[in-house]
Amino acid sequence: MDAFFNEMFDGGQVRAPYARLGDWTGSMPDELRHLKQAEAEALFRRIGITFAVYGEGGDPDRLIPFDMFPRVFTQAEWRRLERGILQRTRALNAFLADVYDRGEIIRAGRIPADLVHRNEAFEPAVMGIRPPRGVYSHIVGIDIVRTGPDDFFVLEDNCRTPSGVSYMLENREIMMRLFPALFRENRIEPVDGYSEALRRTLASVAPRKCDREPTIVILTPGPLNSAYYEHSFLADLMGVELVEGQDLFVEGEFVWMRTTRGPQKVDVIYRRVDDHFIDPLCFRADSMLGVAGLMDVYRSGGVTIASAPGAGVADDKAVYCFVPEMIRFYLGEEPVLNNVPTWQCGKRDDLKYVLDNLADLVVKEVHGSGGYGMLVGPKATAQQVASFRERLLANPANYIAQPTLSLSTCPTFVEEGVAPRHVDLRPYCLVGEQIKLVPGGLTRVALTEGSLVVNSSQGGGVKDTWVLAE
Amino acid sequence: MIVTVEHVTTYHYDRPVRGVVQSHRLTPTRFDGQTVLDWSVEVSEGTAGGGFRDGAGDWVQSHSAHGPLSEITVSVHGRVQTQDLAGVLRGHRERMPAAAYLRDTAPTRADVALTELARAAVAGATEDLDRAHRLCAAVAEAIAYRPGVTEAHTTAAEALRLGEGVCQDHAHALIATARVLDLPARYVSGYLGGEDADAQGAAAEAAHAWAEIWVAGLGWIGFDPANACCPDARYVRLGSGLDAAGAAPIRGVARGGATERMDVTVSVRATQQ
Lengths: 470, 273
Prior knowledge:
The complex is a heterodimer. By secondary structure, chain A is α+β, with helices and mostly antiparallel strands. Chain A contains 13 helices and 23 strands. Chain A folds into two domains: about 10-340 and about 405-465, no CATH class; about 340-405, Dna Ligase, domain 1 (2-Layer Sandwich), CATH 3.30.1490.270. Chain B has a single domain (about 1-270), classed as C8orf32 fold. In chain B, the strands form three sheets. In chain B, strands 1, 2, 3, 4, 11 and 12 form a six-stranded antiparallel beta sheet that branches. Chain B has a four-stranded antiparallel beta sheet with strand order 9-8-7-10. Chain B has a two-stranded parallel sheet with strand order 5-6. The N and C termini of chain B lie close together (about 5 Å). Chains A and B meet through helix 5, strand 8 and helix 10 of A and strand 1, strand 3, strand 4 and strand 11 of B.
């Protein structure tokens, strides 16, 4: 296996951002480490943060392992990441505003019409409906991997309802409690401005018919949802109501919330319910999670839904291949962050290459998530590769393939001390009147030695992510 | 022609409901084939909500009513001056790309039989317009008009197996066969008037449905397999969708878990000017 980029050690040298952390671990006896680890776990249990990240399913009460060794970026590294993330977020929203309007990028032949119009995530119900400020995706999670000192790649975009931001906030909170001295010795950019930034973002996209300080709510599918903790956590931090479909109703031109003081008008709904369940009148008639008539109110300017129904057409894995093209088309810029080279199995030549190199590639379902239904060629047995080949051949257009990336590693506490483990990063970008990115994100770590799969459903953990101030 | 519509729908609930929310697609389409002379939609309870023109050019009006209520009536009255455009939807403004109507929905999904019906019907045809006409004729022949054998959730594939159905089944089957051939197709709801309303009989077919197929160069063209023809001056077009549910003139949800019964009376009269 190739040498992986180690974010802390460059040869024998400790890289600058990690300079102080070397002393920190070096001076920490095993007993103290075990004690702190137990303390961290107790804290996570007490606050009840046990959900699966990114809607991966699995046991909702399982604690995701928290690794105390932080992942660190310098200010310069972060500035470049930030430029790339903001750029990509702008392009994704410009794309959404375009495909639900005139579709210039399609007319210009820069993206195939079928990929958009025949896409399951393309939502005819919002065609021609311009949401407030033209924003479709208000919270964009962009998954990034690193393969070298200056090499960052975007793995995928999440324009619907990216989850996991509560880990970013809680990981920091817990690290500050466990190791206050670390935060005195290192100048670390704060992330706790996220909830206020989210609230402002949502308030800035109040609907046309709202003529006062907007009332914001978070719409959750309910306590059985794996990310319910996050929904209630964010509602709490923002000081807004957490509601379920049954708490809301449509009357006249607006959406109302039942309260003990009578109905209260709702202006902005940050929904964590999937498109097809938000309104039985417009979408799935059997949905119990939504609000009947919500889409009509939305489309006539009485309420804002964040993110907009149909936003998913921008984050589909086949559309992903065209994001660099979107950046050039809408912004006239070259992408700051590159895509991972991707083969679209729906294309004849690409499929041939993928079949010939199946054992070296990672193959994923176009609409899949959570690390399920994918093949990691180099880690798979010959039999697994063979059976995957059949599934792939049965429906090639449903798959994309990428090279097996040499994900960077970050020091991680393991049984025998500290060892390198592979990591990725999901920052959360907010889009309203302004675009905002909190300096940090969620770092996921593959805790199993050698593993490249960071998904929590498959043995992944999380880390605090630091951006050092200048 | 002048088409006069009287369309009254009453929803009865077996016990009082807490509220009703409806979405109406009950306004005649604006295009060269029809001009509204007068038109009104009245609801016995509640208030009108927001209205908007959707991407397909339909006017959608929401309506809600407070409970408790045991019934609610939607009454549509109006007159439309119509012109026979041989089914062509001329002068219609919409944003929807035709290709968006290539996707399947549960009732319009083609099975092997529908696929074979489509391929056999167009064998030898070289023009899309010709293909569309042939599909319409093939569906008309394969599914006989017979009320009562199918219901609201019957799929195109099931209707073809039965060989019988009503206008909804004909439209779904035509849409399914057209999409098999990569021709965008959609469901259209509206009214069909007879010279003499009584002689036309079945109210269910006066509240009518048909399909539109996209033919490059001409645009959307209506085809009515239930009557093996293209819509003419006897037809009033209300709106469209991927299938019957998407184009429904009235969609509604009642809060409070009651069982609903619906009574519909429709009278549509087409008279020469």
